[in-house]
């Protein structure tokens, strides 16, 4: 026995097993169909069909699909089916299972190689088509369910697959038969109806796949051209229904086959009717304007036999109809384009038309190119695939002409598109232009005229759109706050809040250059287009020739015009840098070699020279624009846009030039730093970007190093702008930002600038806003001193160490320990020599008397300085030990700031007064860090602060004055005991404070009594949102008096202490908060 026989035996056994399984069902069905009585609609017939279908399906599945149905068994099963189909009628349910059985027979028997005869195919194809579609003259697909249609379409699909499996041109030969034409037409109509009318996705997909197989089998353009109108019409309706993207994907696969076979250039021998010589003009008839004949220039040679259907006249009529249909079919649908398989199908039909039908379908090429451009928006590799595929096409010159025409038409529409509110439409048009241009670049079909035309068109249209928007924006009315001082202070706080820690935000995102004019998507599309323009060979030369000189006018329209051109230049140069990493010239040797090119050198050298020249030109334009905008309306659309473009240009230029930009930095750094202080957050963010790029390129990413290394230039630039007409409200903001970024290192260099600030304060103290801004600068200087010198400094310890006297207990000669007494005795012996005992007693009495007098009298500042000196005889006046963390020079600077704050505090502006008092309170701890210099300065400050309590009624000012006095006592301790006593007496004699204290004391007493009475009563929401200024002043005074009693203790006279406790006890009754006078506090508490 041969080796192959066991397999044959197994197949026979499996076939026999299938026969035994389905035989009963076949007999049962035969009994119902062969009988002359019609059983149509009976449940027995339907059940028999279901049973037979189920058993065939189960039998095949049981063998995992590895067996086939023998031909004789298929014929046996088909006998009752044939008898059933002879009946005059059949229900839809019966037809559903009948077609399912036929499909099983086709798929597992007749579709196999060698199993199908031509007769069988010719019988089954029209039969199945008739069963699901009805007669040719009256197609009625809607009468069947989706399941029935699905089984019928599967039969047709598997029948076509089976015909192809037979090989040797079996399917092609049958479909070419004339007698099959009617059946083919009917089948195409039915399949088109199924894909259009059925709601089930699988039916639509199977119908389209069957159509594709059918057209692939026909392979005859003449035959398919007859079916083209119906196919295109149905597909147009199908697209309008917006079905699932998979349906449209299959539809494009079918349509590409139809288009290629129908309009194949080689098959039609189509050629374009071009002018070969002038003599041909004699035969040209004049055309009416707008005539469609102007577009149609294709000629198909006549067929001598006269049997060809596809003639020139046919082509002309057909193409106009197909073009209208393709404009609908190929219209981009974003939801569909998101799927790669859909884009592949669109690309396939587009490239098929361009490759095979470029001449005959010349009217369709613009539509096809737009379709290809829509794919390019999602996948830029489409352009490369297209140009690579068509690079060696015989009609590539025709394609280039179409691309140029499409580019010109799109460029002509860009003005209307940019002015349209539909951003998606604008982005689509710009994307089309980019695609057309990239294709022309790949085909090396871009000339200098085309490049200049694109640049000029973009420049003019963008300028017009921005100028129009800026003009409309400038006519809007803006409300201006009436309190300019407060608005200015708020502006400074908002602007400088970006630099609180002295660092720039590295996570900022670039803003839209054309904010308020164009959407981000449109701007991104324009930038992408300009990058493609920058890839054109020789474009840098074209840009340099197009760029006019930078001496433009100072009106906003001229600024906008130049800024648009600047943006085009910057985008082109920056994109060139991205493509050419070797463009950055970081070595002088490379630069010298680069500049030593000859006129006969390669074009690449001249292109690089033009790039470099364009960079420096763009820097000059950017600087001029920023200079003009420095004095204009910074919040107008045109000003913001031009400033952002200029700053971005400077940053990009630094990145491209690298170290070569360092010598140029001195010309462009201050304009960038100046915009860090802009009140417009968009400009401010862009200035931060530019600063970070410069720092990253030249200073290792350190903005602090950038500022410090260029401090001389920056400070000189600031000094020049602190006089005359150059003085602007933004100057203090710039100083604050520089101080925050530069930190303590920069403070040492600010001597001249601070001197200039003092001069300005002397000259412009009546200008409240400017004075406030300058005071904020001085306040920032103080803040930086705190951060730099006092970061970990313990001011509480300094205050404790300043308490040189024991305020709770009396000590001999004001000493705290026996060691101090011994030291004092030794000093006394050194000073007095061998004086007698009487002299020692006199000296002790003088020292003691000085201490008593110092507590009780109100001496002037000079006397108190002498008194302090007398209290510390161990420290000679001519020797000063430096204890402050600050340098001597910095300490002097702080004292100077204090003096100017004191001078300008009593100003007509309450805001300025408050700022000065706050600054003074901040400075007191700093000057207290050097004890030997503190007390003389603090003595005058006491009288200064006390004067505000006696001359001002503003609660805010009174509160700040009390804070200053409290700080002085905190660090000066008993030095201010006599001054406090005098101040208390002055306040006691003031009717304002007397009335205030009496009123508030009564209120507090009544409130305490009421609280006791309502201890068990629940009261909801007793909180008031209003500010009680009098209560706040009373609390401030009480807290101040309490602090002084605790800090000065026994150095306060008893009568003064009693009166002070009488005021503060109603606010704070805790005896521990009164220190030396705790017993007195208990007594006053009982008295109240």
TrEMBL record:
Residues 857-882 are annotated as: Disordered. One of its GO terms (cellular component) is cytoplasm. InterPro entries: ARM-type_fold (IPR016024), TELO2-interacting_protein_1 (IPR052587), TPR_TTI1_N (IPR057566), TTI1_rpt (IPR049362). It holds the Pfam family TPR_TTI1_N. Residues 19-376 form the TTI1 N-terminal TPR domain. SUPFAM superfamilies: ARM repeat. This is DEKNAAC100503. It comes from Brettanomyces naardenensis.
